[in-house]
Amino acid sequence: MKVYIGPYRSRWISNVHDRHMNIKYGRFEWDDSKDWEDRAWERLENALQWLYNNTINIILDKRSGQKIGVRIDNYDTWSMDHTLAPIILPMLKQLKKTKHGSPWVDDEDVPEELRSTSAPPKENEYDIDDNHHKRWEWVLDEMIWAFEQKTRDGWEGDYYGEWIEDDTKALGGSFESCDSEGMKAHQKRMSNGFQLFGKYYEALWD
Predict the structure, then answer these.
(1) Strand, coil or helix: what is 63?
(2) C-alpha dihedral over 180, 178, 159, 138, to 10 degrees?
(3) Which terminus has fewer CB within 10 Å in the chain: N or C?
(4) Partners of 4 in the β-ladder
(5) Residues 106, 164: one domain?
(6) Are residues 46 and 101 in the same domain?
(7) What's the chain's Rg over C-alpha atoms?
């Protein structure tokens, strides 16, 4: 497999007014009643954006879109779930580190203590509950854990006891014990992590 994915096509954007308002009022907490200074920065931003759109952005818009090149070899699909795991895992970890928000997560997908019904009452109906971001953190952690296990060779070995050599056995020996219930629980958690990945695939954005 060989993959090349270039950056998204960019344009020049003027945000001098936005920066001014964020510093003056706080991020996303702008005062509706703007004074003369706020309006002056807004006019400057509009003028700069007009200039950008009619000069440099005209050139930038003529470029082709995001460059993507993918070559798949036959062996990549021999075990496609294992091939994709080491690619998906670091992306999930980076998303968790750099994300700026959280999507809606259904209560049924998280433990009871993280559900909206377990959070304190909201002040306003349109507010998010205190567990909103915690639910997404939990879902991301479960996805990451599941793909970490997929990248491991032989996680099942965690549930076997010591190997006892015995020439009378067909395999030359056997394990003294096997925690089959623990192995089933491990696999169930992995499968749930992959199901969450599929369900919230379109929420994997920063």
Answers:
(1) coil
(2) 20
(3) C
(4) 69
(5) yes
(6) no
(7) 26
Residues 195/88/102/42 CA torsion (nearest 10 deg): -150
Cβ atoms of 140 and 95 closer than 8 Å? yes
Query: Domain of 179?
Result: 79-206
The answer on 99 and 66 residing in a single domain is: no
Residue 70 neighbours by CB under 8 Å, 6+ apart: 1, 2, 3, 4
Q: Give helix 132-151 / helix 180-199 axis angle, nearest 10°.
A: 120
What does the DSSP 8-state code read for residue 127?
S
Q: Are residues 55 and 100 in the same domain?
A: no
Pair (45, 85) in one structural domain: no
- Looking at 39, 71, 103, the residue that finishes a domain is 71
Domain end: 71, 94, 123, which one?
71
Residues 97 and 30 in one domain: no
Q: Which residues have CB under 8 Å from 134's CB, separation 6+? A: 114
Q: Does residue 136 share a domain with residue 85?
A: yes
Mean pLDDT, 10 residues at a time, over the chain (206 residues)? 83 85 70 77 91 88 80 94 96 94 96 96 89 97 98 91 79 84 97 98 94
- 155 HSE (CA, 13 A, CB side): 16
Write down the pTM of the prediction.
0.73
Between CA 17 and CA 34 the distance in angstroms is 12
* Distance between start and end Cα atoms, the chain: 26
Asked if residue 178 and residue 117 are part of one domain, the reply reads yes
